[in-house]
Each structure stands twice: as C-alpha cells, then as structure tokens.
Amino acid sequence: MQLGLVGLGKMGGNMRERLRRAGHEVVGYDRNPEVSDVASLREMVEKLAAPRAVWIMVPAGDPTRGTVEELGELLAEGDIVIDGGNSRFTDDEANAAHLAPKGVGYVDAGVSGGVWGLQNGYALMVGGAEADVARLMPIFEALKPEGEYGFVHAGKVGAGHYAKMVHNGIEYGLMHAYAEGYELLEASEHVTNVPEVFKSWKEGTVVRSWLLDLLVNALDEDPQLAGIKGYAADSGEGRWTVEEAIRLGVPLHVITASLFARFASRQDDSPAMKAVAALRNQFGGHAVKTN
C-alpha cells in the first residue's frame, strides 16, 4: 500500500522504516530536508495515487491543526488523513469536521511504542469510520506488533486518542508506583542491592512489566540514578485524563496523585511547604529551617 507520512522525527522516521520493511511504499515529508523524501507537502501529495492516505506525526495542537488545514487544500474526495500524534480527542472532532465538506476521511490513531517501535511494533488505538479503518488495515497490520494484540478500533473519530490518553494516564500511575518503591528501598537500612531487587522481579511476580524492564535498564546504567535530576515533565495527556475524570465524575486517585507528583518535582523550594512550616511554627513553636 502507498502512504504519505508527514513528520519524520524519532517515531515518524522509524514508522517509515518499519512500513518499508513490510513492503509498503512511503513518501515522507519533513521540514528537515536531510530526512525528507520530498520538498513540500504538495510534492508529497502529487506523488501519491488516488485515493490517497496521509499519516501525520507532528506535535499536537497548532502544528497538527495547521497540517490538517494545508492537506485539506491539497487532498480530494476519497482521500484519508490519519493523525497519529498525541492530539487531544476534541481536536479530532474539529479536524474531521474541517475535512468532511471535501469528502476527505479522518482517522485518529493513538500510537504507543516510542523509540522501540521499529523493532517491537507500535500499539495502535484507532478511531474513525469502519470503512476508513478497514481500508487502512494493511498499514495498521504492518505497524502493530506481531501476534493477536496491539491494535484496536476503539470507536468513532476521537476514540483512538481518547484511549491513548487513558493509556498514558495509567502509565503515569504505574511509573510512579515503581518510583515510590525505588525510593523506599533506597531509604531502607535493610536492603543493600536495590538494582538486583528490581531485576529479581522481572520473572514470576505480578509486578513484572515492560516498564519494570526499562527501570532495570536505567539502574544497570546508573544504580543510584545520580546522573539524573528529579524533574519530570508531562506531555499533557495526564492532565487531559484528570480533566475527563472531573467532567465525568470518575475518581482517579492514583493517576491524579502521580500527575501532581510531577508538578512537585519542578519546585526547588515548595511555596506550599513553606506555608506548612510557617503554620507549624506559629501554632506549635516548631523550628523552621531558614535560607
């Protein structure tokens, strides 16, 4: 099958390679001419035979919206646009509505796999019309991991990114549970080989996972994680997950706490904890540490 691919960064570039290895023809466009197959979006579209399929792998928000709008001027009835970035699900509805008057289909694909996807495949969570998804199945089959799992048609337009949003919210919670366990083990006077404890959990335990394997890799490289600052960013999907929980009245204790922990990691000196220390000093005369 033939596919246009916009955005050839860490994931997009590897996706192009995985598809080509599976025998598909990929015409890739990127603003970086060193990795791009063509000089412009227009040239990419012109190299594709109708009906066309174009996959977008650019940052969420304005870059994706701008790309969809530009493709809307270049594509024709029967073509399909796939957004495989980390867009918010509400953006999918707007993008689909923008393309609909021209008869251009729209599919959203939540993609998980990161830098390991070229080797292991990408987990795909897809939203869109049944006919559009069915037409794209050769591409999805080539990108997904081998075997029964790793792909789902989650529902209508927006469902793919919604599922990926929840996936990433769960990821926040899992990562933080491992992280808290690591800190407790490091603080204990009883445990003298923390990396080997985590390594022992890789087989036969209920907490084994790919995330655990990745933490073991990190501890092999730096057993005390001394070369890493305790600062964690968030991509936005954790926030969207919590916002949806508030909208729907669903209690998300663990995911919300893990998101707030990331916020706390960015504070060198917490204003809230300064207030707590001041209050303890005021009502109980407890000592405070001064700068």
UniProtKB/TrEMBL annotation:
Coiled-coil annotated spans: none
Pfam family, one: 6PGD
InterPro entries: 6-PGluconate_DH-like_C_sf (IPR008927), 6DGDH_YqeC (IPR004849), 6PGD_dom2 (IPR013328), 6PGDH_C (IPR006114), 6PGDH_NADP-bd (IPR006115), 6PGdom_BS (IPR006184), NAD(P)-bd_dom_sf (IPR036291), Pgluconate_DH (IPR006183)
Location of the 6-phosphogluconate dehydrogenase C-terminal domain: 160-287
Gene Ontology molecular function, alphabetical: NADP binding; phosphogluconate dehydrogenase (decarboxylating) activity
EC number annotated for this UniProt entry: 1.1.1.343, 1.1.1.44
Keyword Oxidoreductase: yes
GO biological process, one term: D-gluconate metabolic process
Keywords: Gluconate utilization, Oxidoreductase
Record's keyword annotation contains Oxidoreductase: yes
NCBIfam families: gnd_rel (TIGR00872), PRK09599.1 (NF007161)
Similarity comment: Belongs to the 6-phosphogluconate dehydrogenase family.
PANTHER family cross-referenced by the UniProt entry: 6-PHOSPHOGLUCONATE DEHYDROGENASE (PTHR11811)
Name assigned to this protein: 6-phosphogluconate dehydrogenase
Organism annotation: Longispora fulva
